[in-house]
């Protein structure tokens, strides 16, 4: 139910944005560059191997017992990657929202250069609130008043979002 | 007798010849509206009495482009925020070429706004109140914060304040200027304010109305004690003010 980290790859497979929401015990930023490089390469190979000529999105998700990785590739070739705990759902929706934020706060920022690391602090702020909101929705069924409160209480909580 | 006949014949023939020549030689040249309000919130100005004048001399029913439209035809339409933001982003990148100094960049940006301000004031006074000219600096500032703000940004400015120390210093308050919305400043340019573009527009309007002044845009951080949100001030300092 937790989102671990969010990565953005540019068209050529460069890691332009990396943010860890949960601190990883072993991975360091340099390791992320290596991991995403391998991921990009594999994704390109899988595109070639795909038996269907129409569907060429590369890897869209990787699932494991301990984590789940989701990748959303835009029509322009950008890759938005999120890793989360395996029970997390709606990750594609989250990635599309992040893409919306990217279009607003990175593409319209005159100080951003293409294929360069993203430094727009407004983008990072908005991303934090988005992820916070999403994890709140995921956390909702685990809240302590889930069992013994009247129904309207958690309808109110739902209404917030 | 001769004079009188001449005069009457002139008067009777004048409107026809005038309308035909104006149709041939001067196709209505108009610029598209510069309304930059966010999409969907059109400024509620109605009753553009001049919009019919482009029909004179147009004989064919062929569809014309927006550049052939009348000056007031796009009065109630607004430009989408995305289109404006991308254009402003390009403008800022163009202004930054070869410039390291924040002050020079702000001056350049406000110089572009100055040219827009002069033209916008002409356009707005033509559209809204063609018969009136403001001669008092306070009523001119009110005209800018209400009518011009509504015309350009689709909403009113958030306030107009006078300085306690200086009689000829005024503050125009805006909580969310449209130019600062998507711009994140890098750490070496924290003092730069993209709203100096709007400051330039205000400057152009005031100077072309006959008020000599200086206009500076300034970001004010949020104040927790008085619960004031983060806002942008446009500081207007009048010169040679006569009372």
Automatic annotation (TrEMBL), chain A:
Query: Could you tell me which Gene3D superfamilies the record lists for this protein?
Result: 3.30.450.70
Principal localisation? endoplasmic reticulum
Record keywords: Nucleus included? Answer: no
A GO cellular component annotation here is: Golgi apparatus
Indicate the secretion signal residues: 1-18
What keywords is this UniProt entry annotated with?
Endoplasmic reticulum, ER-Golgi transport, Golgi apparatus, Signal, Transport
Name where it's found: Endoplasmic reticulum; Golgi apparatus, cis-Golgi network; Golgi apparatus
Keyword Signal assigned: yes
**Which terms under GO biological process does the entry name?**
endoplasmic reticulum to Golgi vesicle-mediated transport
Q: By its UniProt entry, which InterPro entries does this protein fall under?
A: Longin-like_dom_sf (IPR011012), TRAPPC (IPR007233)
Tell me the CDD domains matching this sequence: TRAPPC4_synbindin (cd14856)
Among Pfam families, the record links this protein to: Sybindin (PF04099)
Whom does it interact with, and what assembly results?
Part of the multisubunit transport protein particle (TRAPP) complex.
- Family under the similarity heading: Belongs to the TRAPP small subunits family. TRAPPC4 subfamily.
Protein name from the UniProt record: Trafficking protein particle complex subunit
Q: Which organism is it from?
A: Reticulomyxa filosa
For this protein's source organism, the top of the classification is: Eukaryota, Sar, Rhizaria, Retaria, Foraminifera
Automatic annotation (TrEMBL), chain B:
One GO cellular-component annotation of the UniProt record comes to: TRAPPIII protein complex
Q: Does the keyword Endoplasmic reticulum apply?
A: yes
Q: CDD domains in the record, alphabetically?
A: TRAPPC5_Trs31 (cd14943)
The Polar residues compositionally biased stretches are: 9-32
Q: Which domain of life is it from?
A: Eukaryota
Give the primary localization class.
Answer: endoplasmic reticulum
Region entry Disordered, spans: 1-38
- Fetch the InterPro entries from UniProt: NO_sig/Golgi_transp_ligand-bd, TRAPP-I_su5, TRAPP_component
**Which keywords label this protein?**
Endoplasmic reticulum, ER-Golgi transport, Golgi apparatus, Transport
One Pfam match: TRAPP
Q: Which locations, inside or outside the cell, does it occupy?
A: Endoplasmic reticulum; Golgi apparatus
Q: Does the keyword GTP-binding apply?
A: no
Which Gene Ontology biological process is one annotated for this entry? endoplasmic reticulum to Golgi vesicle-mediated transport
Similarity annotation: Belongs to the TRAPP small subunits family. BET3 subfamily.
Q: What is this protein called?
A: Trafficking protein particle complex subunit
